[in-house]
Amino acid sequence: MTSALLEKRKNVGRREFLKTSAAVTGGLCIAAYVPELSAGARELAAAGPGVFAPNAFVRIAPDETVTIVANHSEMGQGVYTSLPMLLNEELEADWSRIKVEAAPVDPAYNHAVFGMQMTGGSTSTPSEWERLRKMGAMARLMLIDAAAQKWNVPASSCHANKGFVIHAASGRNASYGSLAEAASHIQPPQNIPLKDPKQFTLIGKPTRRLDTPSKTNGSGQFGLDVRLPGMLYAVVARPPVFGGKVSNIDSADALKVSGVRAVKQIPSGVAVIADRFWAAKLGRDKLRVTWDEGEHAALSTSKMTADFSKLSATPGTIAKKSGDPAGALASAAKTITAEYDVPYLAHAMMEPLNCVVDLRADSCELWTGTQFETVDRSNAAKVAGLPPEKVKLNTTLLGGGFGRRANPASDFVVEAVHVARIAKAPVKVVWTREDDLAGGWYRPKWHDRFAAGLDAEGNPIAWTHTIVGQSIMAGTPFEVFIKNGIDAASVEGAADILYGIPNVQVDLHSPKIGVPVQWWRSVGHSHTGFSVEAFLDEVAHAGKKDPYELRRKLLAKEPRMLAILNLVAEKSGWGKPLAKGVGRGIATHFSFDSYVAQVVEASVEKNGNVKVHRVVCAVDCGRAINPDIVRAQMEGGIIFGLTAALKTEITLENGRVQQKNFHDYQMLRIFEAPAIEVHIVPSDANPTGVGEPGVPPVAPALANAIFAVTGKRIRSLPIRSADLAESNEVKS
User: Fold this and answer.
1) Residue 673 pLDDT more than 80?
2) Alpha-carbon gap, residue 712 to 297, rounded angstroms
3) Distances in whole angstroms, Cα of residue 537 to Cα of each of 136, 400, 588
4) How far is Cα 371 from Cα 75, in angstroms, rounded to an integer?
């Protein structure tokens, strides 16, 4: 993905923030071609005698092992396979000999566009599309040169295949490992031609994931797996209200627990340090802390909902305006209005937050699953009182991330360094599931108010959309990227709406509330996808239009979205009869430069419980690097989105989070999961995002299916059975 492409795209707000975040983090944006290794990368490359390391991303050892250094974190999305596929398409190594390891924090591994080392925005594979292929081609050309010099033949007469350089005319061949030493003395080429895509042998092919064996045999290391000699464990008692502070500590009973070493106050709360996790946890249970709850002790999400609704009835800051929306509404033959609400949501990763810190007088080493290496190292260094180059951050496998491990304040990392300062030994700080759900940094709560005007034929001619919700950037070091009062992450999916409605206005209110918020899988699209697509369904029915046919008409100038809309309608059998009591809903959404359309088939039982039978998904994500990963990400996004639509919410009363664990913050279970079909549109365009775009369309498609079968509109999530009970008759 190039900077020019990003400039052309409409959802540039968060991308622009990341691209310019080097100003905040001190990161340096580097070109796609990396001829020189930085000092840190050179140290990594020097893994043994005779190792060939032509650049920061690949090493070839005499034993034929090919190590690819991944500069993006593996959190289940498959980059430890897709990134090696990019590099090896040009390297031509034996795929069975490839290993992957996480990159250290070093400018050589900065995001090719965003100027910092990070994983997010569904950009990992697209951003490396050109760079990693060049890194593989560089290594291949140098290996061929080494063999050609050894055989005294022109390099042009040799070629590479499956880890060998071959001179067909003489029948000679040499393995990459045998050429490693000689290749390390070859000057890197300045001109690196890449294959014509027609010659691809790996890219575009379903390929088994390289990280699966280590995750199934237990050898893969997640943050929770890290063990160090003499390591202690810690859990932290944090305020029950966001922004609260410690008033008094009674640690007498906690210190009586066998194994508890110390109880100390830190900026985020009170740390209980022990020989083992369970001792630390029991010690915290017996800790008696008096809290100064502060100014947020009266926070209530039910009151927020009412306040947001009132605020949405007033003019906000304009994020988009085209035509004359007010005039078109006033002259419309028919107008309709609606309000939508979605709640705060936790990320609820399978692996709760954790961080291991070994802090010494002149160095600091960390082990954690992170999406924000540059930021985390910088923030850890400040707390440790060390320059960043004295802080080594080891990125482990992540047991889920969804944005939570890309925290703007590095909260769980900074906290662990504070604990290490008092532990005087290596220490692992572990968050329990209860800590995770109550720990904040949620997907914001949102309220959306719409009005649409229809002409005499029932076509939409005006569309206004007022959004109310917290800014993710506000109150963080990245607040400088809020432009003209608009946090673009708040309005993405709304201000860049693709539908050809002539008069559109989108405005925004960003109330300041003491609940920490940050990106959550699909970010702003997670709420605009629901509200925009559900309200468009209302518009279609108000104008007596088929929801699919109206979308076709409004997407006439968006050929890629129109193509997948038509595909999903065809594959789902749109318009064909369904079983009695089953309804269909349709939705599209453009996010992370990818186009997704989904059709949901669902029914509602007499008690109001919703059953999702089938989801059909069509996606245009440019060139699919590994179709298996694209399908898996769409499937995962659909399940993630259905969970939010049917199950989860974070609510507050008296400033306190009400949800405790998975019994009251439930996940979609296997027996509740629908049949899912994913159809990938073949494309020669550059690859685009797949990790997040599957999330936004599924909730509105489900809501639209429920309306189709019950006649009831879903305007708030999660969907509550009480609102649908005894309403399962099919509409006439």
Assistant:
1) yes
2) 36
3) 48, 33, 11
4) 9
